[in-house]
From TrEMBL, chains A, B:
Stored SUPFAM superfamilies: Winged helix' DNA-binding domain
The keyword tRNA processing appears for this protein: no
Free-text comment on the cofactor: Binds 1 Mn(2+) or Fe(2+) ion per subunit.
Cofactor: Mn(2+); Fe(2+); Zn(2+)
Cellular compartments annotated: Cytoplasm
Matching Gene3D superfamilies: 3.30.1490.190, Winged helix-like DNA-binding domain superfamily/Winged helix DNA-binding domain
Record text on subunit structure and interactions: Homodimer.
Protein name: Ferric uptake regulation protein
Molecular function terms, GO-annotated: DNA-binding transcription factor activity; transcription cis-regulatory region binding; zinc ion binding
Organism: Chondromyces apiculatus DSM 436
Length: 178, 178
DNA sequence: GTAACTGCAAAATCTTTGCAGTTCA
DNA sequence: TGAACTGCAAAGATTTTGCAGTTAC
């Protein structure tokens, strides 16, 4: 769980029932398509379900390699692609060039992101009024929305604080530095 | 201008005064940093300022090569990076793995995007109420927002219509074809 | 038994960088 | 003149793919 230390933890209370639903969906999909359950897949999938909310491929790989040293990039890529295909996971990119995956919105509720460009922290938020306005806009354009992405980039409270105290350390009793 | 044919064209009325401001900002930045104005840069920059709203690097390169066959990828990349550095352009990624650039928000007004996954069309929209809600959320988390991204993915009105008529063609007496 | 899966390494993309020659100021 | 710029090609980074061997069903 990578959440803002001082912040109350919003939104990421994963709903157990929804998690079960996702696992069932995956199960069904795999049976339908004649896909197999291998040790590697189980490990990757479990790690993904239980791990931090916005893991990169790299992070996930490192984590599964902690259990099974021999797992390769390709298997992780292929497995996450499988999860995305059946709607259990969504791929997200936050502009740092890395792909991250998160559980589909059924499990954690509908949410969007605040991303700190200083420390990389990702905070989730939820705002029903924004969702409502979005729907209105889509309707106005006759657009059928299947997914959306709403991200705000900037500096989190902690980093602002750190920067400010670093600045005042620099000299003496002066005020805020630019 | 890549806009929905039937749609009223929103937002992309570029404000000439703002455009001038951006050119001035660029000019100032280049002088400050001791950067030079070369024929290639001028061509790329003009093409970018006058071209379609969300060009990819590839598209921009093709367009400038129409004028000067010898321009290389690296120069386009470097020039757009320069524009982004001085706040004249912003890089955007819409999930197809390509970088696109658009003029900074000073020129066209604050806006966000509807992206059609069927035909790739990008529609811009503007919704002050959403901006206001965003600000409220950022404040709640003590977050200092420097930029944001709000995208809705789905199927545009045209593509829905096309798909529907394709479906009814399959059967009997259908109506309008796209 | 066989079709799906795995790991590896090679390939494919997109973007950045190093270099030698060119050009703006 | 000389630092900045350009084009090319090589290098990087991330993701995908081909293949030969392995394994689930």
């Amino acid at each position: 769980m990578v959440h803002a230390p001082g912040e109350e933890e919003r939104v990421t209370h994963v709903d157990e029932a929804a998690l079960e639903r996702l696992r069932t969906r995956l199960q069904t999909y795999m049976v339908e398509k004649g896909l197999r359950s291998t040790a590697q897949r189980r490990l990757i999938i479990d790690t993904f379900f239980e791990g931090a909310p916005h893991m990169t491929i790299e992070e996930l790989l490192q984590q599964v390699r902690g259990v099974d040293r021999g797992i390769g990039y390709a298997t992780v890529y292929r497995t996450l692609k499988l999860l995305a295909e059946c709607g259990v996971a969504s791929e997200r990119r936050f502009g740092d060039g890395l792909s991250r995956y998160e559980l589909a919105d059924d499990a954690s509720s509908h949410h969007d992101h605040l991303i700190c460009l200083s420390c990389g922290k990702i905070i989730e938020f939820e705002e029903p009024q924004i969702e409502a306005l979005q729907d209105a806009i889509a309707e106005k354009y006759g657009f059928l929305v299947t997914s959306h992405k709403h991200e705000m980039y900037g500096e989190c409270a902690d980093c602002q604080r750190t920067k400010k105290s670093a600045a005042s350390e620099g000299a003496d009793g002066m005020r805020d530095g630019a």
